[in-house]
From TrEMBL:
<dbReference type="GO" id="GO:0006189">
    <property type="term" value="P:'de novo' IMP biosynthetic process"/>
</dbReference>
<feature type="binding site">
    <location>
        <begin position="89"/>
        <end position="92"/>
    </location>
    <ligand>
        <name>(6R)-10-formyltetrahydrofolate</name>
    </ligand>
</feature>
<keyword id="KW-0658">Purine biosynthesis</keyword>
<dbReference type="GO" id="GO:0005829">
    <property type="term" value="C:cytosol"/>
</dbReference>
<dbReference type="InterPro" id="IPR001555">
    <property type="entry name" value="GART_AS"/>
</dbReference>
<dbReference type="InterPro" id="IPR036477">
    <property type="entry name" value="Formyl_transf_N_sf"/>
</dbReference>
<dbReference type="GO" id="GO:0004644">
    <property type="term" value="F:phosphoribosylglycinamide formyltransferase activity"/>
</dbReference>
<comment type="similarity">
    <text>Belongs to the GART family.</text>
</comment>
<keyword id="KW-0808">Transferase</keyword>
<dbReference type="InterPro" id="IPR004607">
    <property type="entry name" value="GART"/>
</dbReference>
<feature type="domain" description="Formyl transferase N-terminal">
    <location>
        <begin position="6"/>
        <end position="181"/>
    </location>
</feature>
<dbReference type="Pfam" id="PF00551">
    <property type="entry name" value="Formyl_trans_N"/>
</dbReference>
<comment type="function">
    <text>Catalyzes the transfer of a formyl group from 10-formyltetrahydrofolate to 5-phospho-ribosyl-glycinamide (GAR), producing 5-phospho-ribosyl-N-formylglycinamide (FGAR) and tetrahydrofolate.</text>
</comment>
<feature type="binding site">
    <location>
        <begin position="15"/>
        <end position="17"/>
    </location>
    <ligand>
        <name>N(1)-(5-phospho-beta-D-ribosyl)glycinamide</name>
    </ligand>
</feature>
<feature type="binding site">
    <location>
        <position position="64"/>
    </location>
    <ligand>
        <name>(6R)-10-formyltetrahydrofolate</name>
    </ligand>
</feature>
<feature type="site" description="Raises pKa of active site His">
    <location>
        <position position="144"/>
    </location>
</feature>
<feature type="active site" description="Proton donor">
    <location>
        <position position="108"/>
    </location>
</feature>
């Protein structure tokens, strides 16, 4: 590619993963940050970085499909090469997701395929797992079910709580997401009907330390 990768992002919360992306000074051009919540902190993070923002409320639409088509249509109009879901907390309609095959990634706080959905830290502790982690995957219609491309891992200690796990894992998330976007921007991570890393199909997710 003879120009910077054009990146859009969607977020529902305070935007800490988005801030980590911006702080990494990646060789990309951020074209839009959108949210389903007008007061999401992520929007202010984007504004502070001089990036255009858009917020739409699901309550203003008759159903989920109409909302998804409107929001993702606005994102598409910004002509991104890559869409990053950085703490976007809504399930996306399958017909809308299909238009983004191989062009959208999501970060999730578990070692997928373990613990899809919510309360991942609690479920990790309840299962007495010895390790926890975060995953970045390509987005498909299955919730947190697309091909996993990279993971970061942390050990679970005997004194860990949901809060301490979340705090320690967030540090790794803030490294993992920028590392994956960088790998896409420089062409090491690509999509050709499936994810390829350095030209080869992935037999397992790439470890953060190998990105």
């Amino acid at each position: 590619m003879d120009r910077p990768l054009r990146v859009a992002a969607l977020a529902s919360g305070r935007g800490s993963n988005l801030a980590a992306l911006f702080a990494a000074h990646l060789p990309v051009e951020y074209v839009l940050v959108g949210s389903d919540k007008a007061k999401a902190g992520a929007l202010q993070v984007a504004r502070d970085a001089g990036i255009p923002t858009v917020a739409m409320s699901p309550k203003d639409f008759p159903d989920r499909v109409a909302f998804d088509r409107a929001l993702f249509g606005t994102v598409a109009a910004a002509k991104p090469d890559l869409l990053v879901l950085a703490g976007y907390m809504r399930i996306i309609d399958a017909s809308v997701v299909a238009d983004w095959e191989g062009r959208a990634i999501n970060i999730h706080p578990s070692l997928l395929p373990k613990y899809q959905g919510l309360h991942t830290h609690r479920r990790c502790l309840e299962a007495c797992d010895s390790e926890h982690g975060a995953s970045v995957h390509f987005v498909t219609a299955e919730l947190d079910g697309g091909p996993v491309v990279a993971q970061a891992r942390i050990a679970v200690g005997p004194s860990d709580t949901e809060a301490t796990l979340a705090e320690r894992l967030l540090v790794e998330e803030h490294k993992l997401l920028p590392a994956v976007v960088r790998a896409i921007a420089d062409g090491r991570l690509t999509w050709r009907g499936e994810p390829l890393f350095q030209g080869a199909p992935l037999s397992a997710p790439v470890d953060l330390n190998q990105l």
